[in-house]
Design a protein that fits this description.
- By secondary structure, this protein is α+β, with helices and mostly antiparallel strands.
- The protein is 14% helix and 28% strand.
- It contains two helices and five strands.
- The chain has helices at 66-72, 91-97; strands at 21-26, 33-35, 44-50, 58-65, 81-83.
- The chain has a three-stranded mixed β-sheet with strand order 1-3-4.
- Strand 3 and strand 4 form a beta hairpin.
Length: 98
């Protein structure tokens, strides 16, 4: 399904891509991937950074399943988990094996 960006809050339960993939934008290629307390266990979170030269291009930095992130890392006081890039799988390899 597609929907207007202004309706994003109404579609939080839907995945960004297909039925399992959540793309999380970071502001820098050095950022961490955020897993929110509302993310479903079956989803896969992909860290993406918008290219500085072209906002139509997104660097896909890495990916991890929500369930694995919750097993490896503790939640903060708001229920969020921050996954360092060193724990992310290469997106190409991860998507092939997912």
């Amino acid at each position: 399904d597609t929907w207007n960006l202004k309706d994003h809050n109404l579609n939080k339960s839907q995945a960004d891509v297909g039925d399992r993939f959540e793309v999380r934008r970071v502001r820098s290629l050095k950022g961490e991937l955020t897993i929110r307390d509302t993310d479903a266990e079956h989803k896969i979170a992909i860290m993406g950074c918008v290219d500085e030269q072209s906002e139509n291009f997104v660097h896909l930095i890495g990916a991890i399943s929500v369930s694995e992130a919750r097993e490896k890392f503790k939640q903060d006081e708001r229920g969020n988990i921050y996954v360092p890039q060193s724990y992310l799988y290469n997106v190409d390899e991860f998507l092939i094996n997912a």
